[in-house]
Amino acid sequence: MSNTATEFIEKKLSNTIENRTDRYIVSHKSTIDWGKYDEPSYVDFESFSIKYIYIIDQPGTEITFDIVCDATCDLTFSGSHNDNFGRMEKWLTFHCSGDLADGLSYCKIGEPEEYLKRNREKGHLSDNLVPYMYGQRDYETAANDFLRNTGYEKAICNPTRIDPAVVATKVGATVEYVHITEDCHIYGRVFMNDTDAEYYDSESHQLKNKQVKAGAIFIDPNAVKKLGEGGNNNSIIHECFHYYKYKKPFMLAKMANPELSNIEQSVKPQEIDEDSAIYWMEKQTRAITPLIQMPMPAFKTKVESLIQHWTSACPDQSALELTELIIQDLADFYGVSREAARLRMIQVGYTQAIGAFNYVDDHYVPLHGASNSNLVKSNQTYTLSSVDAIFAAVSSPKIFCILQDGHYIFVENHYCLFESTYVTKTEDGRYQLTAYARTHMEKCCLLFTVSFKDKKINTDNILIHSALNKDLLGNIVMNVTYEGSSLLENPEKHRDVQREINYLSGLITHDFPSSLKAIMDYRETKQSSVAIDADISQPYLSQIMNGTKRPSKEIIIKLCIALHLPYDDIAGPLLATAGYTLTCSDQDIAYKLILRSHFSSTLDECNEILLKLHCTPLGQSILS
């Protein structure tokens, strides 16, 4: 069974097209452009192949398509004494049309023409009949077309909350809250034709069936609980767009698989073939749904009105400090999640939202940004996960050199200058950014440019793309680069402001136990808490400190992480007092990277980094 439009059309029309090509070549030999040859006396049609089929969308269930074929012709030129011969390939175009409703059974085939290269035009469809969309402009256009066709044209320019129930009615869909699967890995499902639909009965814990009409939308109530009102609204409009936009890909797929009945919104789409229709339908719909809910002209108007409102209401607060209030108001007004509102702000040019409501490594990253939002582009970020930060350091010689001297600390998911102006210590011994640093990131934190190593991805709004499609990325590799230079202007000043670090460095003698005890005494840290944080037993730590046990290199590294000790000034010298040095092995380089800039992290966070670097984690070496 044919799976693509090209395969289907070739199978259905190839013989007809070949016969017509033969007749055309022979009957039009006097008018065909033979290039370097004069008009031949005879033409023999030698071979034929279809090169490609160019498909254009049409209203309803119809499509038009150009079949471009290659005819190899043997040419004979009669002379007064001897015949001359030549061979030439001639490309022809057949303009055709057909209706998917009848399975393309009655296609109209126009007369052939000599091939002329055509420019890309509106409505161009892929071989799976999915519309081609070439970036953000096409996504915005598709969203606005959808709004016009669902009665919301005024919402494009006037801030309006899009009601999913109204949208569903306009596209001929009905919404029902039904458990779809036991584990809720499918949030929504839209049925493209009347069918016997499968659902999960939570009372009997069994899959059951029920009759549904075309346009029925199932939304899993567990997904609503998980995602809230914003997620529910997004899911309904998401499925409505599927039903509105992708009837033709579905009809084509149904020709190959008559049992097909629905398109589903799965949270496990990484298992989907990236060349399949469902992959591109899902990718496009995820990008377009927020644009439907927050159309650009009206959204900008709303943002500006909220900026004016909050600036007047809170004159003492900066634009950055007002950002989270604005995002929350946008989320409430449009009925979307805060993350959707934040990403839309970034997308339309309000880059101050990049530093708002970030959740990385399973925790909230405090509001942050540059003093001037124009300093940050939409494909740049100060924030990296701990693993991405280490990979950036390992893969980029420039970043590695900047971090090599220990002048930066990885704190609140930023690489920040380790100076008291920018970094302060909490009561539990960990570090955090100062209020000044969070509002002047350009002065103290490395700004990274993010891209993906895949030609299919538009990098203009890469942060939005990765957030909307993070589970669609599959094996695509995220690339993080740093284009600036070190922000360190005065190394001596940097050293001077680390008064505690300098003092602790002075406590290190030639004896490891006494050095460790002096550092813990200065920090007023109890053995019990250090043992817990280092994942060793307290009796064993006591034996280390009284000199009856010599710890391994890994145990000392665990203690340095538990005490948040940086490598160059304290951890390195402390290792040396016990007779250890870190070498150039992959494992020891990973230890150095962690102790240089991630020493404020927990042991669990450091072990996650080691595992991602394919290094051995610092396990629980001593149980008692």
Helix content: 40-55%
Number of strands: 21
Radius of gyration computed on alpha carbons: 33 Å
- Domains (count): 4
Strand content: 15-25%
Regions with little confidence, pLDDT below 50 for 5+ residues: 454-477, 493-497
Total number of helical segments? Answer: 23
Described by the principal axes of the CA atoms, the overall outline is elongated
The largest pleated sheet is described as: 6 strands, antiparallel
Give the structural class: alpha+beta
Q: Average the pLDDT over all residues and give the rounded result.
A: 85
Distance between the termini: 66 Å
In short:
The chain has 624 residues and is an alpha+beta fold.
Could you walk me through the main structural features you see in this protein, from its secondary elements to its overall organization?
By secondary structure, the protein is α+β, with helices and mostly antiparallel strands. It folds into 4 domains: 5-125; 136-293, no CATH class; 359-493, no CATH class; 498-612, 434 Repressor (Amino-terminal Domain) (Orthogonal Bundle). Helix content is 42%, strand content 19%. Strands 1, 2, 3, 4, 5 and 6 form a 6-stranded antiparallel beta sheet that branches. A 4-stranded mixed beta sheet has the order 7-11-8-12. The longest helix is centred in the middle third of the chain and has 25 residues, at 221-245. It starts with a helix and ends in a 12-residue tail after the last helix.
Structure keywords:
624 residues, 6-stranded antiparallel sheet, 21 strands, 19% strand
Please write out the topology:
Layout: H1 5-27, E1 42-57, E2 62-77, E3 84-99, E4 108-109, E5 113-114, E6 124-125, H2 136-149, H3 164-170, E7 174-177, E8 186-191, E9 195-201, E10 206-212, E11 216-219, H4 221-245, H5 247-256, E12 262-266, H6 277-293, H7 296-313, H8 319-334, H9 338-347, E13 358-360, E14 363-365, E15 380-381, H10 386-395, H11 397-404, E16 408-411, E17 414-417, E18 423-425, E19 431-433, H12 435-439, H13 441-444, E20 448-452, H14 462-468, E21 478-482, H15 491-496, H16 499-506, H17 512-523, H18 527-534, H19 538-545, H20 553-562, H21 567-577, H22 586-597, H23 603-612
Parallel strand pairs: 7-11
Antiparallel strand pairs: 1-2, 1-6, 2-3, 3-4, 3-5, 8-11, 8-12, 9-10, 13-14, 15-20, 16-17, 18-19, 20-21
Helix pairs in contact: 2-6, 3-4, 4-6, 7-8, 8-9, 10-11, 18-20, 20-21
